[in-house]
Amino acid sequence: MTQIWPEGVPVDVETIDQTPVAFRWQRKRQQVQTIVEQWIIHDEWWRDEIWRHYYQIETASALLCVLYRDLLADAWFLERIYD
């Protein structure tokens, strides 16, 4: 079953030029193999602003997931893991 955390789960992410190359999930280092898709959301400026850079990635261990970087807080979160 796909796991979704709408507010995201904080994760430690290794980057090169702000692009994720690895992250830690459940005490294991996950190496990014492919960035499948990426997009930026900048919305709700009239309320609580949301500005995020999303990455749908596949890891070397075949984990397909969505990470995002909160560009306002400069923090990384895991939002979804696909089955």
Secondary-structure element string: EEEEEEE
Number of domains: 1
Largest sheet: 7 strands, antiparallel
Which blocks of ≥5 consecutive residues have pLDDT under 50? none
**What is the total tally of β strands?**
7
Name the structural class: mainly beta
End-to-end distance: 6 Å
Our estimate of the beta-strand percent is: over 45%
Radius of gyration: 13 Å
Q: What percentage of residues falls in helices of 4 or more residues?
A: under 10%
* Strand order, sheet with most strands: 1-7-6-5-4-3-2
For the residues shown, what is the average pLDDT? 94
Characterize the overall form.
globular
Count every helix, treating DSSP H or I runs of 4 or more residues as helices.
0
Please render the helix and strand layout as text:
Elements: E1 3-10, E2 13-16, E3 19-25, E4 28-43, E5 50-59, E6 64-70, E7 75-82
Antiparallel strand pairs: 1-7, 2-3, 3-4, 4-5, 5-6, 6-7
Task: Provide structural commentary.
By secondary structure, this protein is mainly beta. It has one domain (3-82). It contains no helices and seven strands. A seven-stranded antiparallel sheet has the order 1-7-6-5-4-3-2, with no helix packed on it. Strand 4 (28-43) and strand 5 form a beta hairpin. The protein is globular, with a radius of gyration of 13 Å. The mean pLDDT is 94.
